[in-house]
User: Which sequence fits this backbone?
């Protein structure tokens, strides 16, 4: 009887894990522990890490599954400095560009979803990531340098790199607003 019970318990636990019904949610934990790093080191992001991050961006959801994005990977330090001044050798920039005009869709929002997927993927690999909106103007004025495809506009830039572990960025981060400040419940 003990063997049958043990098998049933193991089968239940396996099916719970298979269907995502576990008590420890690594995705939620990753989101809740994440922050946008500012201090990086020159240790390079590997090709394997970059490939995984890009795959996660490609798999992001989009309205009507239009996937209205293109990703431009920049590893060249002088070119990266044209977009963001404080990058280091070993960092990678991914310029996320969206379709310039497409009626009835939301390319900028969809590009944001792809960016968030890559941001989370970078963190899941132990890398740092920071999302930049302001420097997109620098990229827009240098479309040829950054090889932005025709018919697309730069929407956002994602910086990825290895983090300086000597900096306690988590405790120095700007505190988040409380749920009471930003969530309304309609009764």
Assistant:
């Amino acid at each position: 009887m003990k063997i049958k019970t043990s098998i049933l318990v193991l089968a239940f636990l396996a099916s719970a894990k298979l269907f995502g019904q576990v008590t420890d949610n690594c995705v939620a934990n990753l989101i809740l522990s994440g922050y946008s790093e500012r201090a990086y080191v020159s240790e390079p992001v590997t090709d394997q890490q970059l490939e995984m991050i890009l795959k996660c961006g490609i798999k992001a959801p989009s309205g009507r599954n239009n996937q209205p994005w293109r990703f431009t990977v920049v590893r060249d330090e002088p070119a990266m400095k044209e977009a963001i001044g404080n990058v280091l050798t070993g960092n990678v920039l991914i310029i996320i560009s969206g379709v310039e005009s497409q009626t009835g869709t939301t390319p900028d929002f969809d590009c944001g979803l792809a960016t968030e997927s890559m941001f989370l993927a970078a963190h899941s690999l132990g890398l740092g990531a920071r999302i930049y909106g302001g420097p997109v103007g620098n990229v827009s004025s240098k479309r040829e340098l950054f090889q932005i495809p025709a018919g697309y506009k730069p929407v956002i830039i994602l910086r990825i790199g290895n983090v300086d572990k000597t900096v306690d960025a988590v405790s120095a981060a700007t505190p988040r607003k409380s749920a009471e400040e930003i969530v309304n419940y309609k009764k």
